[in-house]
Specification:
Elements (H helix, E strand, L loop, with lengths): L2 H19 L1 H5 L4 E10 L2 E9 L4 H8 L4 E11 L7 E15 L4 E6 L4 E5 L2 H9 E8 L10 E10 L5 H6 L8 E2 L3 E5 L2
Antiparallel strand pairs: 1-2, 2-7, 3-4, 3-8, 4-5, 5-6, 8-9, 8-10
């Protein structure tokens, strides 16, 4: 029984050293979705939002070394049902890509929702363009009852490492994302 307190003290020292040794993991900021606006249109909703803290050191290093970084955005509308699971009644998934061209010393930004690609000269400007989403249209299913309560859900995922296609299909359970937001949930007026 002499080893009981010693084992507990050793476990405490191990946890303390891990916590002190890896402070970025303990205090890192999580990427979030902010500044969400949604307005009703005939066939659904137009949604605008911003990705905040979507860039960490690892992502910026990957971009500066020329690795294409892909930002995947998921925008979904759900019909709230009190006794059943919520029903997905609309969704839109799109990508923003960011790539540094060291020869031209420019950043190529591609916005998938509008099919536009352009070049900018600074990383800050590229980050601003990639992080902002304007007027994405989420079309609703015809199954939505007109008075049903709706909910908007938005999520973003940042990937700077892509596996080759066969490996991506084979290792579908492996997540190589750099940053991922929690689902942002906002009720929509009927």
């Amino acid at each position: 029984m002499k080893n009981g307190p010693l084992k507990r003290w050793g476990f405490f020292c191990l946890i303390l050293s891990l916590w002190i040794g890896f402070p970025p993991l303990a205090f890192s900021q999580k990427a979030t979705i902010r500044e969400v606006t949604a307005r009703r249109i005939d066939s659904g909703w137009k949604v605008s939002f911003s990705l905040v803290d979507g860039f960490n050191e690892k992502t910026e290093e990957a971009i500066e070394s020329g690795v294409e970084t892909i930002f995947t955005f998921f925008v979904e509308a759900y019909q709230k049902r009190p006794w059943l699971w919520d029903r997905k009644v609309g969704s839109f998934r799109f990508h923003h890509t960011l790539r540094f061209d060291p020869i031209r010393n420019e950043y190529q930004v591609t916005l998938g929702e509008i099919g536009e690609s352009f070049f900018v000269t600074t990383l800050e400007e590229a980050k601003r363009k990639v992080s902002r989403v304007e007027d994405v249209e989420v079309q609703l299913s015809t199954l939505v009852s007109p008075r049903a309560p709706l909910e908007l859900r938005i999520k973003a995922q940042v990937d700077s490492i892509r596996l080759p296609f066969p490996l991506e299909q084979l290792l579908f359970f492996v997540s190589l994302s750099d940053a991922e937001t929690d689902w942002y949930i906002q009720p929509l007026p009927p």
